[in-house]
Amino acid sequence: MGIFSLLLLLPWVSALDFRYHRTKDLEAFLKEVQRNYAAITHLYSIGKSVQGRNLWVLALGRSPTQHKIGIPEFKYVGNMHGNEALGRELLLHLIKYLVENDQHDPVITKLINHTRIHIMPSMNPDGFEVSVMLQCSSTVGRYNANKKDLNRNFPDHFTTNNQIIQPETKAVMNWINTGMFVLSANLHGGALVANYPFDNGNDATIDANGVSKTVDNDVFVHLASTYANNHRTMHKDIVCHDMDFFKDGITNGHQWYKVKGSMQDYNYVWGQCFDITLELSCCNYPSEDKIQDFWNDNKIALIEYIKQIHLGVKGRVLNQKNKPIANVIVEVQGRRHICPYVTNKNGEYYLLLLPGVYTLNATLPGFMSLQQKVVLPNGAEKFSAYEHDFVFSLESTSKEPVRCPLKPLYSNSVSAVTVTVFNFLSFVYIGI
What we know:
four-stranded mixed beta sheet, 11 helices, 21% strand
């Protein structure tokens, strides 16, 4: 068989132009990728927009269709604001880059070997379809078809949020509440900065400088800095607007401006997932002839950020018969989360931590606790977090799920039944 014939047998993706892709073209590209790279990709929809467009996600990994024990799950979400269009295109080019470099580039190959990556190019396809290129500060297309801002539409831990939950938001909440994600980022436009939680806060979290700190503030600063430092210009203190100066290209959300009902805060409080917001262009909807430059600016940063999912420690909680125990609280001493981070149905836990010495607590409610001191290396460079399993001598007699101490706050338009169901999904780490 000749070289030309062999080349025809290799998987491939047709040319992906550096232009903005309408919904039909985006769907066609994703379906082509799944068709040509079926071994490492899985295309699925988490729901539909107000106008009935699918919210597509492409999963990439060695086991793309289902979770594999010990393999952490990552997600990128783009185009939450429909007129912030650049992230949508960057994620399409990231997909192409990942599938075409698997088995050729050792970094990409290891990333796909040891991570399951979910990419949603557009959370707000309806808004994108009415947006206009080069309208850099207009709000046309920002909102969904019900004229709601999706990044103000999530339940908020700090303040009552009376917004009616939108179809796109509900779909993403259900996706987050599967409990499978460890690390995430959502891509926006209008500034050049990596923004980390909290977006909202109270007297217990806000310091004298207006920073609303999580108990994992050191990790979030590292995550934001990883993106900014690997971006070609973000770390250079570029000012898009007179009031926006971000030292080293990062900012705490609340210190920048307060947001009630943001997706990144929801991920962290109720989803057990560390999420940051990436503002990638001064103009919300830059011209097409700049997309390739933006891709070159962001390519390395997008890859390096995914690698950070392998920071910290991971493992399982088992009984003496080697069977997994779900709903065990696993936390670091001195880092108690607002909603307990608990094991999934496989007994798995993942904690993102910087290299250092920590004491881990595994607590089986109504039964007992175990402690373990660990010395954590930088797992991101080895594509694997430090591994430690806890083994309980007996199974718990309590069947009560671990519940979040503070309920999410809904508008009166949501029925009591809906709230009850949501509380169960939110507070129990139901697994994959």
